[in-house]
Every structure is written in C-alpha cells, then in structure tokens.
Design brief:
Two copies of one chain form a homodimer.
Chain A lengths: L17 H12 L3 H8 L6 H7 L3 E17 L2 E8 L5 H14 L4 E4 L4 E8 L6 H10 L1 H11 L1 H5 L3 E10 L6 E9 L6 H19 L2 E8 L6 E8 L13 H16 L1 H12 L3 H6 L4 H12 L9 E5 L5 E8 L13 H9 L5 H24 L4 H15 L5 H12 L5 H11 L23 H7 L10
Helix pairs in contact in A: 1-2, 4-14, 4-18, 6-8, 9-10, 9-14, 10-14, 15-16, 15-17, 16-17
Amino acid sequence: MNNNSKTNSLSGFYKLNRADRLERLRHFCGLDDSSIKLLSSDSPLKFELSNLFVENAIGQFSLPLGLVTNVHLNSKEYCVPFAVEESSVIAASSNAAKWIKASGGFSGMVAGNEMIGQIQLLDLVAGSMEDVRQIILNEKTRLLKIANDVHPRLTQRGGGARDIVFRPFPNAATPFAVVHVHIDTCEAMGANLVNTVCEELAPHIQALTGARIGLKILSNYATERLFKVQCKVDPKLLAERGQDNGAEVAAKICEATDFANSDPHRAATHNKGVMNGVDPVLIATGNDWRANEAGIHAYACKQGSYGSLSAWQMDEDGWLIGEIEAPMQIGTVGGITRLHPMAQKSLDILGRPSSNELAQIALSTGLASNLAALRALVTTGIQAGHMKLHAKNLALSAGALGHHIEEVASEMVRNNKVSQTEAERLVKTLNCSCLSAENGEDLPSTETPKPHSAQKNIANDGDDGHIQSQ
Amino acid sequence: MNNNSKTNSLSGFYKLNRADRLERLRHFCGLDDSSIKLLSSDSPLKFELSNLFVENAIGQFSLPLGLVTNVHLNSKEYCVPFAVEESSVIAASSNAAKWIKASGGFSGMVAGNEMIGQIQLLDLVAGSMEDVRQIILNEKTRLLKIANDVHPRLTQRGGGARDIVFRPFPNAATPFAVVHVHIDTCEAMGANLVNTVCEELAPHIQALTGARIGLKILSNYATERLFKVQCKVDPKLLAERGQDNGAEVAAKICEATDFANSDPHRAATHNKGVMNGVDPVLIATGNDWRANEAGIHAYACKQGSYGSLSAWQMDEDGWLIGEIEAPMQIGTVGGITRLHPMAQKSLDILGRPSSNELAQIALSTGLASNLAALRALVTTGIQAGHMKLHAKNLALSAGALGHHIEEVASEMVRNNKVSQTEAERLVKTLNCSCLSAENGEDLPSTETPKPHSAQKNIANDGDDGHIQSQ
C-alpha cells in the first residue's frame, strides 16, 4: 500500500512503456496479478456489464486512463487515476503536484459530511410560514427517527439523518417552503438513500402541516458536504528558467485569482481548469461527474456572482498559498463504483480511500491542475506547450505514423505554422507510409507511435512543466 | 442516412440483443461493415492512441455507450450516442424524446456563433479606461485583420474574427480591463485557435495602450456561442395511467421550474438532470465536457443567482412548452473528435452533423432528460422506477448472475426492502451459483444477464416511462 518510503518509486514514470509502468504501479500500490492483467487489457468492460449499467447499450466509449503522480495529501502519497481525453492535463497536474509536494504537500479537511434531501411544501399561505416552521421543528426528533428507520444499517455504520431545517420562500411567485433533511451517507454518494428518505418523510410532513407536497429529492448543491484543501508553494519552484526567484510569477498567479473573482468570463475558464483535475478522478472511480459539476459550479456563485473556486494569495514569507473549498458528492460503494472492474482498480491504485479521503484527493488534483494552468498563463502562455501536443495530434490526424508524428510536429512548431493543412503538406512531402485518417479506425494499429516527447518537459521537470490547457 | 421514412426503424430497440441492435443501426444510419465491426469490438481504443492522447497512460476507462432514440429535431430524426455510467438516463431521455416527437419534435436555432478570447490589460489608471477603450476601438479593423491573418484558412471557410469589445473593470481591487475578441471557429471547438489569436494580438495591444498584458486565453463562458432549443408537449402524453388528462402533471412541471428559479439547492439538481442528457453526447463525440459544464452552469447564474437552465410553461391550449438556451462549445473536428475511432462512429451515427447541429442535438437530449426527471418527480417520485434498476445493481453486486439478478431484484422491490444486506441475504437463500463480487473482475463474464426488464416500461411505453435519476 501507499507509504512514504515508496514516495519516489514513480519518478520517471512517463519514460516507461506500458508494461514497465504497470510493473512500477504493482509495487507502488501492492496490486496483484489479476489486477495487472485487467489493467493490461484493452477490453476491460464486458458488453454484458455495459448492458446492465445502461439501456439501449451497443458498446463502450473508452477514455484514456493515465496516472497523476506526486500527489502528497495529509502526509500520504498517492498516484491518482485520471480518465480524461484532453492532452496535457495529466502531465501538468503531475508537475504542479510535484511543486506542492516539494513545498510540504496538500492538507485537506472535511468541513461537512452530510447530503441534503429536499421536500417541497406547497399551497402554504405566506403568513402561515412561521406556524409551519414551528410544527416541523417541534417534530424534529420524530421525523429524524422516521428517516433513520428507513436505513437502519446506515445508523449502525455511524451515518444517518442528523438535522431537519425549514426554509420558507414567501416571496416566490407562488409561496412555498422546503424541508431539508441532512444525512450522513457514509461511504455512499447517497442519491438513492436520500431520495428514499425524502419520499418516506413526505406523507408524515403532509399530515403534520396540511401542505401539498411538491418535489422530494436530494439536492446536488451539497453545501453540507464540504471539503477544503490547501497547499503552499515555494515560489522558487515557479520561477522561469534563468529568470527571477519566482516572486513575480507567484504575484501574477494571485492577480489571476482577482481577475476570476471580478469577471465571470474569466471565472468559468479558471474553474474549468480546476475541474480538469476533478472530473477525471470521478470518472475513473465510477462517480457521477454531473452531480459534482452542478454542485461545485453552483457553489462558485454562492456570493451572488459567478467567481473563482480557488483562492491564491501570498503569505508573509512570499510563499504562494492555495485553497479550494467545494461540495463533493462521492461514493466508494454503490452505483457502478462497485460494479465497474476498472473503478475497482482505480480504488486499489488509490489505496482504498474512504469517500471523504477521495473527495480531498480529487480537490487536490483540481488545485494542482488549476495551478499548472495559471503558471503557464502568467509566464509563456498556454500555447507554448500546448501547441507541441496539438501539433502531434494534427500530424497523427494527417496520417503520420511512428517517428513521423514527432518529425511533422516538430517541423510545424519550429516554423510556427501549426495547422491541419501544414500537417497534411508535410506528411505528403515526407512521403511517409501514411494512412488516410478519414476513418478513425484506420489510425495506428501496427506501429506504436512514441509517447509525447513533450512529456519529458512536463512530467518530470519543474522548470519547463508549465503546459496546461484550460 | 437519417431520414423520416426510417423514423420508426429503431422502435423496440431495447428488446434486441447487441448484434440485432447494431444491424438496425446499420440500416438506420447507413453504416458500413467496418463501422459495425468497430462498434462490435470490446476494445475499440488501442493503447497506442490512449498513449498519444494523454500522458502517463496505463490503459483505458470504458463508459457504456448506448443510444437515445426518438430525437426529432428541426424535422430530422436522430438516434443519439450516449456515453454514460448512470442507469435510467438513456431510457428516460428516449422516452421523453418520444413524447416530444409525438407532439411535433424539437426546434433549435443558433443564437450566436462565436467563441470569446480574452486579453487582460493591467496597470491602467482607472481614469484612463475611456482613453484606452477609444484606442482599442479606433484600431478595431487593424486588430481584426491581425487576428484573421493567424488562421487564413479559417476565413476561407467562412469563419474568422468578427468583433473586438473593450470591458473595463475600474472597481476591481487593482483596476484592469479586458479586450474580448469574438471568433467564429466554424467546425472546431476552437480553444487552440482562440488562444493563438489572443497570444498574437497581445503585443499589438500592449504597443497601442502601454498596458501590461495579463492573461490571454479563451473564455469558457461562451456567451457569444449560444443555442436555443424549444419543444412542446401534448399533456395527454404526460398523464398517469388511468388518471387525469395530463393537465395537472403539466402544471406541476411548470411549478418545478419556479422552484428551481427560487432556490439554488433545487436548481443545481434540476440542471444536473439537464446535463445528464448533454454530457453523454459530448463524451461520445470526443468533446470537452468540463468546458461546457463550466460555461453552462455560469450561464445558469447570469441573473445574479443560480437558477434553472430550462423553462417550462403552458401555452393557451394547455400544452407544455419547454425551452433551453445555453452556450455550447462543440467541435466536429480537432481534439480527439477526429482521432478517437468511437467519436468518429458517434458522428456517423448522428449523420455527420455540423458543430452547430450537434450543439442543438445535445441541448435537445438535455431538455428531454430534464422533462423525464420532472415528470417522475411530480408523479410517482424518482425512486419508483429507479429502485428497480438500483435493486438489479445490488443483486449483481451481491453476486447474483443471469436470471437470478432479476429474481433477487424483484423480490426486494416487492417487499420494499432494497438494500445490499437484503440482496446478499436473498442471494444466499437462493443458493445460486454466485461469485464473490468483492473483486470487480469476477463479475459476470460467462453468463449473459438479461437487460433491465424495466426497460420495457421506460423506453417504449409512454405511460410508465417516468424513470429518471437526477
């Protein structure tokens, strides 16, 4: 299992071929042979399972699965599985995580542990709101008992319904009220559990208040299930090669937070950079990314205008301090987390974290992804690194294979002419053994293209690793 | 290719086995043999490609790929590939799309067609903002020419930079301004393209204004790339079996919109239901869901508080009118869209839509998903249908196989005791040939479990199809 003595055993991971990567991972995470076999498979999800998970299944859509390294959170070392389609996200996050690790790592905490269920009460006269509130609050103990009787095992596990809150909306077009029930769902994301409790409570609340019951369902704006992750960064690690001591870079990163907090047009992009480091962990562990995207973005406008999810500021020593607080709805059991074989392997790779731990891991990689993007933006710009990767994709798309991919890409970057047209022209000029890329399935299957050589810069070298695409 | 004469050829799709589903699809979409072969494969993404797409690749994470049927948009019939892990989303969306199709279908339009690039100007004195604005606007033509010279091919294709806008932030902690450049990126999502233009324009703007340049990058809050989709629904189709004429159901769906617009705790969940129908299309076509989630949720709080993405109201005839307007950043070329073999197949299945068409398709399925969820919530509740699917997952997780999955699930639902404990107890009682589900890879591989029998109700029967999980 993960421990600090193995901290460095994934260094240079990007240079390895697949088999060697998996071998390193086996030692790092203590995986067994069957796990390695599954991870090595190019068909890890049987159609039978797809067909059970969803309706009208015809097959599967595979996202690349890669590893973000160097994630040091609460004195524990993780390598974090990322299921994502976008180039440079994994390299950039690994790189920023390395700066943070070298500066002391992430520290995370649980600021709230409960899902919210909503039961809507309609046909209330605005004036009676206070009476209804009293009725509900007087019966709180009984209502909580009813809620807990729905899932006796949950209480045994230390979870259960914790609180009942009354929220009046007297000024709505048609006045209504909402009863919130707060439930600690333990290791489950809790959607089914919370929904069942809401439906169970509804007739009791109706009987108590005489209200007509409207919707009864969980809220994905999980403001009672809050997590906070912080980190600090030695500015020297952020310095551009041969330039200052990093103080200017750090100051500009703080300035970028102000920009995001002043302008929703910037905030959305800023936060997209955060979510680049959150969603891939959710998907890789079988969690529901739509639920978390909704809750997290709603939280970004809790102040009344849409702002930054993260905050970057300087401490008195000139170190960069990063912080993110967000609602997370994550499970390590239930849904497809338990049923999808690769979700299980992702949890193995992470050392079988609790749901609270997993939420903090995802916010840590979110913060790392955000930092990498900001550093790129305030130094050489986002395109310097990204164009190299983009050029490779264009080369591949134009039909280049094997070492020609690198050749065509480098030529385009050197000439500052990175386009599909140019890639096609170069492929023709090279007269290489290319395939038409018109049909995706004709893409490389016989030759193995080299991995992005840009990775050397990104994943392992703090000086050049400022690639990120937001 | 898709046309109306084949409108019904996917009816009963859910009943078919995989081979028959693919055969139907071949005829519906005009797919060739190699496409069917790829779709039939359980390893459609070669490791070599994963390794090119992302860094530190070790393998792939597969999401189930299913089809949402009955999507009738702008007089064209689509079946829509959904890459998603959550049960009932595909069935529910198909079902709601069917009500909408029977009521005349979706109508969609492009309300804006341009991405936004941002160039930040710092170290401006608040008083000089107006001068700087004048300088920028006086040079607009020249700046647009510089922008268009970056991508001459884009202009040839009918795209290009269209406008320059100056946005002052005199009241920020440190006053700054932002120059927006609006670019029609045609079939590309446009991130690389817009970023390159911003970086190219920056030194010119610096020279003109003397400002210090801050960030220069696209905005994912794509308020100039807006799409609108509308539909109407005959309320009779929404009626509960043997109950009213659907007028009450329709009225309650409108009431649910008011709830979402009054309470962010409801709005996040409401919008999550929309995104359940949007993201799966983005993933299946190789598009960036984080970019769209960020832009769409930011748009949900454009009024200053986080509200509903969709609006449901009644017209004078008592029909339910649904509408959604949102920014979409979608490409049909570039990124992995062109390189991922399954993304290519998804575009084939959709009949090779333009990016504008694809944006409207995704918003249509988003609206359908939203409607299905709301109808369930205002009638029998979200759990009635969902519990059946949940029970099957629990049965599978407890080790049930083949027909035992259905037996165990039905027993739990009948007794209103749906839990992991109960599933395990029943599996033991049945003494069925079960496997330990502790390790995901031990899940069914030899026996083929039946598809959800609940699908009959969901996907093909308007009366019972109120399953949706939000």
